[in-house]
Amino acid sequence: ANLFGGLEEQKPDALLALIGMCNADPRPEKIDVGVGVYRDSAGGTPILRAVKAAEKILLETQQTKTYLGSQGDAHYVELLRPIIFGDAGDQDRIVGVQTPGGCGALRLGADLIAKANPEARIFVGQPTWPNHMPLIECAGVKMVAHPYYDRDSRSITFDAMMDALNEARAGDLLLLHGCCHNPTGADLDLDQWKAVADLVARNGLVPFVDLAYQGLGNGLEPDAAGTRLVVEAAEQALVAHSCDKNFGVYRERTGSLFIKGRNRTEAGKVFGNLMSLARTMWSMPPDHGAAVVRIILDDAELRADWNTELQEMCARIRALRARLAAFDPRLAYIDGQNGMFSMLPLSKEAVVALRSEHGIYMADSGRFNVVGLSDESVDRFAAAVVEKL
Ligand code: PMP
């Protein structure tokens, strides 16, 4: 018998294919707004000063590489806690573990849900990050898609979303983007978050917040406001957090998963289950990224420098958004959105034409990375795009 005979060919990841096409394009004026990483005004993604400094400290002071255990770096987790949850009450009901990136946090959360209640469903707004559904369904959890954003009217379809969420039963979960919605950039405003929090409390729903871009929308605190509202309203909640973007350590796979239980005892039981599930997957998370984040957050000077750099990244994104919005009324909505991404209501033909005519590389969905633009390319990009709208 041929072990691999039953495998089907897999399509290469669409975004990786786009990167390949862009790299192969010889035109010097090409514009890469495909891949989702921060870029500075020179088009690079350099290592943050604070990260470089922390890596030096780590190199000089680390005494051992012995195992840390399945929870990873507990001090890293505790330093993140106030950044995510502030000084909200009920903290003794919230447990946290380090994970391999935000992806690891989502996957660990999904595995816990599948183990705890195979009947639970996760409601997820459309469109969402393309990896959300495969990643969570792979753990065996059923997902229910519901409306979230309408590309053509460039707005959140809040009433349709709330209607759909009324179908959720007690114990069902809501997958919510904490800030900087990927792929649309369209975040709930505070009143909308409050309405979701009320629904969560009223119907016994469980928020599962994906907070992968904290600090890149409007700042660390504002970007956590929605998360805090729904977590406080809920009896039980999950938060998948990532430091890969806001510390710029993408490949170091630096994430965490926090879970709120009904009480301390339940939270302790959840923690034990997270440990045993982690052991069956990665056993222990990779250390380097979390150690670097821990060193930065633990040192007043490095922490202040990181904050400065994060605010610079955030300000650059906001400035590019404002400039696109000012270019043409049809792009005005981009300034009201957050994070690295927005979506253009372009046909697939238009996206392909922008590629061949102008060397502009964006996803077929019309999602583009705002911060892939530069002072030099932003108006050129806007002019080419509005032609196709
Ligand atoms: N959630 C969302 C919405 C994302 O966009 C990403 C990364 N693209 C992640 C989670 C995962 O981040 P990480 O690289 O930390 O696994």
From TrEMBL:
EC number: 2.6.1.-
Enzyme class: transferase
Keywords, alphabetical: Aminotransferase, Pyridoxal phosphate, Transferase
Cited CDD domains: AAT_like
GO MF annotation terms: transaminase activity
Keyword Transferase assigned: yes
Domain Aminotransferase class I/classII large as annotated: residue spans: 29-384
Cofactor: pyridoxal 5'-phosphate
Highest taxon of source: Bacteria
PANTHER family hit by this protein: ASPARTATE AMINOTRANSFERASE, ASPARTATE AMINOTRANSFERASE, MITOCHONDRIAL
Summary of subunit composition and partner proteins: Homodimer.
Family classification: Belongs to the class-I pyridoxal-phosphate-dependent aminotransferase family.
Identification of the protein by name: Amino acid aminotransferase
Lineage: Bacteria, Pseudomonadati, Pseudomonadota, Alphaproteobacteria, Sphingomonadales
